[in-house]
Design goal:
Distance between the termini: 55 Å
Strand order of the largest sheet: 5-2-1-6-7-8-9
Order of helices and strands: EHEEEHEHEHEHEEHHHEEEEEEHH
Oligomer: single chain
CATH superfamily of the largest domain: Formyl transferase, N-terminal domain
Number of strands: 15
Helix content: 25-40%
Strand content: 25-35%
Shape: elongated
CATH class of the largest domain: Alpha Beta
Largest sheet: 7 strands, mixed
CATH architecture of the largest domain: 3-Layer(aba) Sandwich
CATH topology of the largest domain: Rossmann fold
């Protein structure tokens, strides 16, 4: 496959193993990634993880602000295929069929379930027992192209979004490597997605990061682990924002929703709609992550009980 000229499009850490695999096994002639971003309080310019890999391997980098209006340069390249993975912009239709082997995408769900930009978060938040990777042909709609191949993974009850992210990024690289020979040999059976099975995984907004203690304890548990370590769920206590990192479902059923009912040796019990969620790790505003035990030690335990998280 070393003779196949690949244009790779991706941006975050999730897509790094895919690019590294392509560099090892094909001829990556160009990398397309999002523009450099200003990050942190000092507004320092930061390259995407994909740009870092491209520079390290002396591969040309192209960073259009709006690829829908800036795709002509990509068309000028003598490529065989476009491969995308978590690029972050909608690919214009002009690119989808521009090269011999078309454009394919590595998506972090078992399509047609969880189309969109946050499939890993949503799989956990929604309580899915499994998810996986789909290799698919790209189409004009959002993640609605024909499926080439898929592989499933189990979502463990202890998985958070960081753990599942790392599982899937490695699986994406492995499955693509297994699939590429059939793509290049044109030995593919395209499978259309069942529109009756479609669900969506839209990007997480700030309002969704807030914990809703009117939900069941299981739903709150899935919400917390589905957002940790990025972007991390939160609640407020007497106006102070507390990011909630880790928890487990308890058994106590007394109290009203959002009420701190019990202080345990290792956590803070908070009443949900049915029973309690026990918060074991959190991050107070302006401080580092800490075990709930350490947070409790700095507070009046008796005053904490009865307070409302909202």
């Amino acid at each position: 496959m070393k003779d196949k000229r690949v244009i790779f499009m991706g941006t975050p850490e999730f897509s790094v193993p895919v690019l590294e695999m392509l560099i090892e096994n094909t001829n990556v002639i160009m990398v397309v990634t999002q523009p450099d971003a200003l990050v942190g309080r000092k507004k320092e310019l930061k390259y995407s993880p994909i740009k870092e890999v491209a520079i390290k391997n002396n591969i040309e980098v192209y960073q259009p602000v709006k690829i829908r209006k800036e795709f002509e340069y990509i068309l000028s390249k003598e490529a065989d295929i476009i491969i995308t993975c978590a690029y972050g912009q909608i690919i214009p239709i002009e690119l989808l069929n521009a090269f011999k082997y078309k454009a394919i995408n590595v998506h972090a769900s078992l399509l047609p379930k969880l189309r969109g930009g946050a499939p890993i978060h949503r799989a956990i938040i929604n309580g899915y027992e499994t998810t996986g990777i789909t290799i698919m042909y790209m189409a004009p709609g959002m993640d609605d192209g024909d499926i080439i191949t898929q592989e499933e993974v189990k979502i463990e009850k202890t998985d958070n979004v960081g753990i599942l992210h790392d599982k899937l990024k490695l699986l994406g690289s492995k499955l693509l490597l297994q699939t590429l020979p059939d793509i290049f040999n044109e030995n593919i059976k395209r499978v259309k997605q069942d529109i009756n099975e479609v669900t969506y995984a839209y990007n997480i907004n700030r309002e969704e990061e807030k914990i809703n203690f009117n939900s069941s304890a299981e739903e709150v548990y899935n919400h917390i682990r589905g957002l940790y370590p990025f972007p991390t769920s939160y609640t407020t206590l007497n106006g102070e924002v507390l990011k909630v990192c880790e928890s487990y479902v308890g058994e106590l059923k007394k109290g009203k929703q959002g009420e701190i009912t019990t202080i345990y040796e290792n956590g803070i019990g908070v009443k949900c709609n049915d029973k309690e969620i026990i918060i074991t790790k959190l991050k107070p505003s302006g401080k580092k992550e800490m075990n709930a035990k350490d947070y409790i030690n700095g507070k009046n335990k008796e005053r904490l009980v009865g307070e409302i998280l909202c």
